[in-house]
Amino acid sequence: MLTLTLDDFRETRARIAPYIKRTPMLTSRQLSERTGFDIRLKAELFQRVGSYKIRGPLNKFALMPEEQKRRGVVCSSAGNHAQGVALAAKIHGIRAVVCMAKNATPAKIAATKAYGAEVVLHGMIWDEANEKAKELVRDEGLTYVHPFDDAQLIAGQGTLGLEIVEDWPEVDAVVVPIGGGGLISGASMAVKAFNPKIKVIGVESSDGPAMQRSIEAGSLQTIDCKTIIDGLRVRRAGEINFSVVQRFVDEIVALPDRDIFDAMIWVMERCKLVVEGAAAAPVAALLHDLVKLPKGSRVCAVLSGGNLNLDQLRGLDWN
Ligand SMILES: Cc1ncc(COP(=O)(O)O)c(C=O)c1O
């Protein structure tokens, strides 16, 4: 069972700190007034590659044996994980192959290549691209980098939680989006190691609440996932992630894609920050009063990334 200590997170942060930014904690008067809480936003959209997704791979590659590094790494993703793995691999001088479905957004393919990764297009959905990645593990001896279910990766993503408590030690609650559970499993352990009284609240789309269903059932569930928000879209959460969330997360709330997209626009308009859907989920939960805490509570919402698919934005009818 994975449990990381404050020292673990401090060591991990020291390992990756030379290559990442320490993203700011911004105040939001509008969100604070609207909710009655004292709110700060962990602005991880300003991280390198535009999301927290570089933290975990940087840690994993720093700890990787030389021989494995020489062979290279592979992942399958058309989103932030691809870019995180690509840049982290480049920093560590490792060959990276990223498998994507053939219908991946051209801009994401270009961004991943620009960070130095080789892109292999295979199949029409993620599962098929992932099969190709597994094949490269078998045939070329590349090391597979899982997007969330990996202890070293979780330690890296969790450094975001350490930064929150260091920069705002009085924080009462942290609100974090959940896809497969990589970010929240790391961040929850870091925050609770600092002070077990800090509440950790996860947010999913109710159009695909894989983690919430699993927690309710008491075991990992595979769900029919309909959310179109790519950071939140998984049919099954990770094993390690589930076990950490069971022990370290106080509550999971969920609300529909539609409300999360509205929150994305709200953040852009009111806070002047470009956030992607997954990153707007914590704000959506706050705007819809799903976070139940005493008035005046100090609450940090994690704005996990800003890699917005502009085509999706154009398709919204937001009146
Ligand atoms: C911006 C952003 N936020 C949150 C998530 C969810 O993260 P996790 O899968 O670690 O739960 C993702 C996943 O891709 C993401 O890209």
Structural features, described:
This protein has 319 residues and is an alpha/beta fold. The chain is built from 14 helices and 10 strands. It has helices at residues 6-16, 29-35, 55-62, 66-71, 80-91, 106-114, 126-140, 151-167, 182-194, 210-217, 239-248, 257-271, 277-287, 310-314; strands at residues 25-27, 38-43, 73-76, 96-100, 118-121, 143-144, 173-177, 199-205, 251-255, 298-303. Strands 1-2-10-7-8-9 form a 6-stranded mixed beta sheet, sandwiched between helices. The chain has a 4-stranded parallel beta sheet with strand order 5-4-3-6. Helix 3 (55-62) packs parallel to helix 5 and helix 12 packs across helix 13. The radius of gyration is 18 Å and the shape is globular. The mean pLDDT is 95. Bound molecules: pyridoxal-5'-phosphate (PLP). Residues 51, 53, 79-81, 148, 177-184, 231, 276, 278-279, 304-305 line the site of pyridoxal-5'-phosphate.
